[in-house]
Amino acid sequence: SFDRTVRVWDKRTRSSPVEVLDAAGESVESVDVKLPCISLASADGFVYTFDIRKDEMHIDAVGYADISKSSKSYDAMMRVRCGQDGAYYAASSIRGQVKLVDLTDGSTLQSFQIDHQNEGNYRTMAMSFDKNEDLVMVGGADGKVYSFDTVSGDKSVICDMKSPVLAMDYNKKRNLLAIGCLNGETAVKQCSVGQL
Q1: How far is CA 160 from the centre of its chain?
Q2: Largest alpha-carbon pair distance within the chain?
């Protein structure tokens, strides 16, 4: 929420949240859940991961180039997507940088950059992994959907939707990528590493 919190409900009770996660310094832009962990990307430049079983919180300064106390320059984090095994996540910033981060120590495993040409609009709006998590797929405000190889860092364009990409999800059983845009346009793309 824009009130800097994530509220967790038990779907059987529904009356009030069972937990309120309020560590974020600014608005929460994105949430992803891979139980027992809840990860959130915040406009304050951090990614917060809460382990609800251990009652622990892990904070990564993903949006900061230099995390020294004197550093006031950071990028707001826009999206977070956790890997299936919970060992890493991908996070994207308002300036189009995407980082693959090791959840155990916060180190950057791989870094990708989207080079937008439309008057500095770098906002990354949607993100997903492919079936085997060999690719990170990112939708941007320029309407393009990019794929990045998680090992080599190679970048390619899957498609150009001509309108900002707001939502994207990957169906691992059918190997399909669903895309939704600001202008109401939608698309479903058949995807595999070889085809991209």
Answers
A1: 20
A2: 48
